[in-house]
Design a protein that fits this description.
The protein is mainly alpha-helical and 86 residues long. It has three helices and no strands. The N and C termini lie far apart (113 Å). The model has no long low-confidence stretch (mean pLDDT 80).
Length: 86
C-alpha cells in the first residue's frame, strides 16, 4: 500500500464557500431590486426614453378619459337643470 499525503484544505473550502455565498446573496438582492422598479425606472435604466404601455394600460387610460368626459357632461347638465328651476 502506497503512502498517501493528506493536506488540510478546510480553510480553502471555507473561503470558496464564503465567496459563493456572497455572490448568491448579491444576485438575490439584485433580482429583488430589479423587480421593485417601475416600468419607467426600468426604461430609464435601459436607456429607453419612454416605456411601452401594455394594451390593458392603454385601454384602461382610454376608459378613464371617457368616464371623466362623461362626468363633466353630466355636471354641466345638472347645472343647467338646477339653474332653470327643474
Amino acid at each position: 500500500m502506497a503512502a498517501t499525503s493528506i493536506q488540510d484544505r478546510t480553510s480553502e473550502f471555507k473561503s470558496v464557500l464564503a465567496t459563493a455565498q456572497r455572490k448568491q446573496n448579491a444576485n438575490k438582492m439584485g433580482a429583488q431590486r430589479r423587480s421593485l422598479l417601475t416600468d419607467s425606472q426600468k426604461a430609464a435604466a435601459n436607456g429607453d426614453a419612454q416605456p411601452r404601455r401594455s394594451d390593458f394600460a392603454r385601454k384602461a387610460a382610454e376608459i378613464g378619459r371617457g368616464i371623466s368626459s362623461t362626468m363633466g357632461k353630466l355636471e354641466k347638465l345638472a347645472q343647467r337643470t338646477y339653474s332653470h328651476g327643474g
